[in-house]
Amino acid sequence: MIFRAVEDADLIRQAARGSVEAYNLLVSRWEKRVYNYLLRITGNREDALDLTQDVFLKAYQNLRKLDDPGRFTPWLYRIAHNEAYSMFRKRRPETDVEDIEPGGTGMGITVGGSSVFPIELSLAVASALERLSPEQREAVVLKIYQGFKFEEMAEILSCPISTVKSRLYTALELLKIELSPVKARGLS
Amino acid sequence: MSCSPFDLRDYFLRELADPQQRQVEAHVKVCQQCREELDRLRITEAALVSLRDEEIPQRIAFVSDKIFEPTPWRRWWAAFWGSTARLGFAAAALLSVAIAIHAFRPAPAPIGRENSRAAAAVAPVSEDEIRQRIQAAVDKAIPEIEARYAKRADQLVKAVELRHLEERRRIMAWADRLDLEDKATRMSAYNFRESK
Which domain holds residue A38? Predict the structure, then answer.
């Protein structure tokens, strides 16, 4: 476990009182996670980076409205989710958000240099994720990659927990079918 | 279909409460079908996490310059205007002060009555009398003004004469010095010739 001299909640209180240094520290703690969340739901590095910048700017502007610093993380991801979907709508206003597919296949080349997993597996995972609907994919990203609880996911996505579970379990069923043989081959 | 006492996926995702978690754990130990389902979920998760997080290509640039940081006074000012309660309280306080000042201020004298008294004190004066008074004032003022102008002209003449005298003295002194220098030059030239 990483020891943190100053807790996020303290930084949030200081930032709400106008301390830019405290907010910068908070940004440095969360920027990578928020960027990767946005990267996985948009599939585009430039968009993810721009959106991450917007998210932290908007969060700073609205920090005083956050009543409970303990709810900072889902609150921040809620902003990120809204920013991403706002971008989707602007780009394709005539299209229903449910039909929007992320642009490009940025995830397909996301293989870390020190990864112990074979490239074939990473490509298969990226391809399987792209075949999910945007909502299913976001549910997987929030649960598997970001480790949120159902309750927090419901807050971020602004929908009931039952909807969150439905999206996630459908996605897992599809991924299980897609990935089981690949995983077996990859690790053998 | 799972025969687990609680949803196997909730168990796998650690969303169950501790007692329920333990119940499913005990069930899985004895149920081959649920164990296999759990293995499939684990394999899927392991495959998913093979996609690692990327490093952010560029740090998020956030304003860190002290100049952009609001001063305590500005923060207070912004908070003051942003708070309806504070604004309401300030308005009520101002109103109270205004009422208090109004209550303790001495009442002004009625204007109409004062004017009628002043009007009564002034007796009616004829036009001839006014003309005579003006003429008397003019007759008195003219010699005074003439005397004042004469005195000022006299002072100016004296000042000019004094300045002229000083100027003349300075020129004379300057001429004397030039004359002396000329003599000295001639003397040195003569001495120089003699020495040759």
Answer: 1-104
Number of domains in chain A: 2
Interface subset of A 12-41, CB within 8 angstroms of B? 17-21, 23-24, 27-28, 31-33, 35-36, 39
**B-contacting residues of A 126-145, CB under 8 Å?**
126, 129, 140, 143-145
Indicate if ipTM > 0.85.
no
- Distance (Å, whole) CA A34 – CA A28: 11
**Are A15 and A7 contacting, i.e. CB atoms less than 8 angstroms apart?**
no
Q: Are B54 and A36 in contact (CB under 8 A)?
A: yes
Domain end call among A104, A120, A144: A104
Residues A48 and A127 in one domain: no
| Entry pTM | 0.59
Compute chain B's Rg from CA coordinates: 55
Residue of chain B with shortest Cα separation from A182: B47
Query: Are A100 and A113 within one domain?
Result: no
User: Among A21, A47, A144, A146, which would you mutate to test the B interface (most chain B Cβ atoms within 10 Å of its Cβ)?
Assistant: A144
Quick one: closest CA in B to A129, which residue? B48
Interface touch A49/B46, C-beta < 8 Å: no
Per-residue pLDDT of B7-49, as tens digits, reads 999 999 999 999 999 999 999 999 999 999 999 999 999 999 9
User: CB–CB of A181/B43 below 8 Å?
Assistant: no
Of A130, A180, A34, A46, give the one whose Cα is nearest residue B42.
A180
